[in-house]
């Protein structure tokens, strides 16, 4: 790994090796300027011997590949993994905000006032965050390295054609684009029922036989709640139960017919906006755009395996033989705003004598129109209460956060979290240690190295 260097006036200089950086720090000729990326600042002015350095980025919805290189050296070879559950967190936040505001009396109604969404260039918060991460990573390196050119891979995808080819193997032509899976249907719900012939896909009961049908999200267990047709299934109320949503249930192991195309949709939405923003913010740099086909061909010529970092290396003008060790980073959430946790009551199941949570022995109702005393009601099997339900409220932040590097007994470990009101920390060694015996040496910040 290379070490970035800046002059006393904070002007970026050519990177150096870790060995030379240690020598400069030890002799007092340099001081630590910043840690991410690790950068030193020289204490005296030196002559500048600059070489052109290019920044190459393999953009993506889940992973970002970065390669920073000159003609003879590669200085950084990185992959950054984005958070995958951000949309769910936004949904939870919106749900709690609405509930909080509905509890206030005499407050002016809030509706139709989202002016931000009406502005040109508006993006959904989850997409905007990923776009901003691409820009922040670039500007973080630009601050401490003399980058003169940048190349970004910006893909263009036909999501409709990709979905149809994966689902049926056919290639869309002409008016096929107008005849999608919802062609002739007023609602998505009706389209799903019509496709499945108004039949429960689990037990086979039909609407003509009296089945009450529901639309089920197949990929719920992996967090895929998208409303694309291939992720929706027709089930009846008898099969659409809480028990069938849990491991071992009839709905748990089902897989969507096609994978989601979130990455393709993201690139179609932000590629030009992101490129124009970078180009207008840094007009003194040379800007280049490439596409996946060109990157794939360059990677084939260089005999490289498929990876996001190798894709970034294959871009641009320089392909030095001397490559740097690969580094892998995972994005961390900055803050956990969930202050309260609920622990369910536990009961003895009269059928087998095992201790189970109250949610497992529930009435099974998923709709208020259903009776609480139907054949799905399992509350009748609650024999004896083992423990009461309880709420735990976190009233303060703790000094140790997940991802922090700590020292315990002379050994480095990574903190997984704290418990018992912040008095004990759980490490990657799956041990619980008193906080008093732990020394934090590195705060995780926005990205955590992946071992």
From TrEMBL:
HNH nuclease domain residues: 187-241
MF GO annotations: endonuclease activity; nucleic acid binding; zinc ion binding
One Pfam entry name: RRXRR
Top-rank lineage group of the source organism: Bacteria
Region annotated Disordered, chain positions: 357-376
Residue runs in coiled coils: none
InterPro entries (UniProt xref): HNH, HNH_nuc, RNA-guided_IscB-like, RRXRR_dom
NCBIfam families cross-referenced by the UniProt entry: guided_IscB (NF040563)
UniProt name for this protein: HNH nuclease domain-containing protein
């Amino acid at each position: 790994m290379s070490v970035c260097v800046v002059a006393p006036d904070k002007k970026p200089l050519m990177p150096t090796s870790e060995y030379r950086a240690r020598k400069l720090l030890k002799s007092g000729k340099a001081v630590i300027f910043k840690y991410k990326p690790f950068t030193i600042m020289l204490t005296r002015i030196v002559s500048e011997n600059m070489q052109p350095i290019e920044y190459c980025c393999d953009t993506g919805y889940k992973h970002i590949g970065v390669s920073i290189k000159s003609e003879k050296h590669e200085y950084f070879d990185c992959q950054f993994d984005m958070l995958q559950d951000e949309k769910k967190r936004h949904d939870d936040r919106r749900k709690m905000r609405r509930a909080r505001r509905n509890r206030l009396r005499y407050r002016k109604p809030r509706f139709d006032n989202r002016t931000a969404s009406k502005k040109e260039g508006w993006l959904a918060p989850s997409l905007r965050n990923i776009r901003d991460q691409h820009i922040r990573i670039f500007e973080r390196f630009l601050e401490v390295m003399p980058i003169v050119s940048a190349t970004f891979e910006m893909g263009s995808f036909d999501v409709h054609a990709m979905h149809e080819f994966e689902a049926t193997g056919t290639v869309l032509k002409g008016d096929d684009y107008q005849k999608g899976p919802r062609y002739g249907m007023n609602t998505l719900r009706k389209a799903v029922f019509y496709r499945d012939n108004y039949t429960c896909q689990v037990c086979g009961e039909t609407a003509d036989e009296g089945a009450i049908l529901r639309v089920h999200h197949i990929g719920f267990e992996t967090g895929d709640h998208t409303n694309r047709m291939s992720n929706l299934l027709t089930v009846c109320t008898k099969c659409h139960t809480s028990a069938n949503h849990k491991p071992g249930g009839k709905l748990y192991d089902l897989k969507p017919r096609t994978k989601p195309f979130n990455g393709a949709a993201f690139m179609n939405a932000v590629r030009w906006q992101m490129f124009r923003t970078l180009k207008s913010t840094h007009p003194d740099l040379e800007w280049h755009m490439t596409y996946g086909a060109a990157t794939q061909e360059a990677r084939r010529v260089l005999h490289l395996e498929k990876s996001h970092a190798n894709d970034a290396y294959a871009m641009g003008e320089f392909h030095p033989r001397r490559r740097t060790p690969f580094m892998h980073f995972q994005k961390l959430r900055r803050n956990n705003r969930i202050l309260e946790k609920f622990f369910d009551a536990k009961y003895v199941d009269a059928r087998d004598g095992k201790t189970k949570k109250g949610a497992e022995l529930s009435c099974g109702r998923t709709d208020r129109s259903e009776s609480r005393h139907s054949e799905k009601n399992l509350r009748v099997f609650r024999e004896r209460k083992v423990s009461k339900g309880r709420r735990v409220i976190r009233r303060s932040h703790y000094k140790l956060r997940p991802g922090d590097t700590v020292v315990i007994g002379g050994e480095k470990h990574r903190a997984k979290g704290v418990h018992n009101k912040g008095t004990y920390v759980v490490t990657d060694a799956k041990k619980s240690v008193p906080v008093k015996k732990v020394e934090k040496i590195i705060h995780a910040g926005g990205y955590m190295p992946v071992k």
